[in-house]
Specification:
Blueprint: E1 8-12, H1 14-21, H2 36-43, H3 50-56, H4 71-80, H5 85-91, E2 115-119
Length: 121
């Protein structure tokens, strides 16, 4: 019965922890206190639990990568902004990572993020 549930092995770096926590990314100074393993596992489901949107603070799209069907990209896309285009733009804004931002007491910081999703079937 395990194989019928289409199991996957998922590995991710500590950058995912920081995105889920949100303390230095989107909710400066406020932690979500969510378990990154739980959030990633829920993002891998076809029907994502609504609590993930509440934890991340933005909507999610179960097939974020579209027809490419890249599960790691689906998870990453939802972690960095999901359906919130303003957050996605923030993640691509080099000025936020420049010296000008270092004047802030809580700089916008994103650690290295790596996600590997390996289906076992």
């Amino acid at each position: 019965s395990l194989w019928e549930s289409k199991p996957v092995v998922t590995l991710f770096s500590d950058g995912v922890d920081l995105l889920v926590d949100g303390y230095v990314v989107f909710r400066r100074g406020t932690s979500s206190h969510a378990d990154p393993c739980d959030v990633v596992a829920k993002l891998l489901q076809d029907d994502v639990d609504g609590s993930v949107e509440e934890t991340l603070g933005h909507g999610v799209c179960t097939h974020w990568s579209g027809s490419e069907a890249n599960r790691a990209l689906d998870v990453l896309g939802n972690l960095i902004g999901g359906t919130n285009t303003e957050r996605l733009e923030m993640m691509l804004d080099q000025d936020l990572f420049s010296n000008a931002n270092k004047e802030s007491s809580l700089p916008f910081y994103v650690d290295d993020v790596a996600i590997i999703v390996c289906p076992l079937v």
